[in-house]
Structures are given as C-alpha cells and as structure tokens.
Design brief:
- The chain is of the alpha/beta class.
- It has helices at about 50-55, 75-80, 100-110, 115-120, 135-145, 165-180; strands at about 10-20, 20-30, 35-40, 65-70, 70, 85, 155-160, 185-190, 200-205.
- Helix 3 crosses helix 4 (about 115-120).
- The longest helix has 16 residues, at about 165-180.
- Strand 7 (about 155-160), helix 6 (about 165-180) and strand 8 form a beta-alpha-beta unit.
Length: about 200
C-alpha cells in the first residue's frame, strides 16, 4: 500500500519514436508502480537509449502517451525534469574539477551531502583528486554518485555498470535497493545482468 509521499506510477501507452528518419520502436506499453524496476534489453540500435531519452523528456514521442499518475508526464517539462535522474553513456565529469567539486553543483540543487554520496560509491578517499586522474571505472562511479544526492523518484540509467568492478557493482546495487524501498522507480538499459531483484524485462528490436 503506497504511503503519503509515495510518487505516482509511470505508464507508457503505445509509444513510438524515431531516430532521424528511422522508426526505432512503436506500440510500446508498460507500467511502473513505486518500487518497480524495468530492464530494457535488445541489440544495439533497437531503441533502448532513445526510449530512455523519451522517458526523460529529452525527445518527444512520435505517437502514444507517457503518464505520471493520471497526468501527461511531458506536459510540463521543467516539472518532469525534477522527478527524473538520468545517467547516460557519458559520465559528464569535468576533468579540471576534483571529485567532490564535480558533485557540489548537483548538491546545491538537491540539498544532498557530497561526502555521503562519495562514500556510497566508495570514492571518499578520492574526494580531492582532480577528475582527470580518475580511472574510467572511478569516473563512472562518480557519475552514479549524483543519484545519491537527489530525491528524484524516477532513475533512468543507460549501461550504468559499464567499467565497474565487482565491489563497485555491489555498492551500486545497495544504492538501487535503497531507492526502491523509498518508492523510487528504475528503468535501465543494459547488456549485462544488473544488481536488481524482482525486475521485469522489456525487449526491444
């Protein structure tokens, strides 16, 4: 039973989208309730990243509807942006800033604690190191640490474990589980198993 403050669910009805002039998917239907996780599967080019961008409000559907509760999720894009946390292929890490400085701007928007976010992904000992000196896996963990700063109920993740070692995947799994316990929802595109239990799969292509 949802409690006070639990976010509404997300519902997709007959979604279709183009990439350039090519139709990448159509007639997609799914529903997410608070606490749910949906894994997007399929070959390269099947539309996984396009669907994540659509759910984030970065591209418009060619057909169909996306609902937040009973309302059009994309009717007010600034409002929708506040309920979405999106981690794409690029880590969006500024090399000239330290690990902590990379998170500080996001923390001012969300009120999150930078030290706690770094600790969640095992980066606290690297807080003052310039991001250009981080390994690819450490930069990915830094990108994922932004998730720990906010309260957005919908997490959209594109190949989130790329470059992570086993220990880091375990930490990420703990972060995902805590988000879902709070009623958060996860949609993730991946080619490899994720540290998520009780997921559903949507296969594209």
């Amino acid at each position: 039973m949802p409690t006070a403050g639990t976010p509404p669910g997300l519902t997709a009805e007959a979604l279709a989208a183009f990439r350039g002039e090519r139709l990448v998917f159509r007639d997609l239907d799914f529903a997410l309730a608070p606490g749910d996780a949906l894994v997007l599967a399929g070959p390269n080019g099947s539309g996984k990243s396009t669907l994540l961008r659509l759910l984030a409000g970065l591209v418009r559907p060619a057909a169909g509807r996306l609902l937040w509760g009973a309302e059009d999720a994309l009717a007010d894009l600034p409002v929708h942006a506040a309920r979405v946390a999106y981690v794409g292929h690029q880590d969006a890490v500024k090399p000239g800033l330290t690990a902590a400085e990379n998170l500080r701007f996001a923390a001012t928007l969300t009120g999150g604690a930078v030290v706690d976010a770094l600790t969640t992904l095992g980066l606290q000992h690297l807080a003052d190191l310039p991001a250009r000196m981080l390994s690819a896996g450490q930069k990915r963990r830094l990108a994922l640490a932004r998730l720990a700063l906010g309260t957005a109920p919908l997490w959209l993740l594109d190949e989130p474990t790329l470059g992570l070692d086993t220990a880091s995947i375990g930490r990420f799994g703990t972060l995902l589980a805590a988000h879902r316990v709070r009623g958060g929802m996860v949609v993730a595109a991946t080619h490899v198993p994720l540290p998520l239990s009780g997921t559903r799969e949507l296969r594209l292509g």
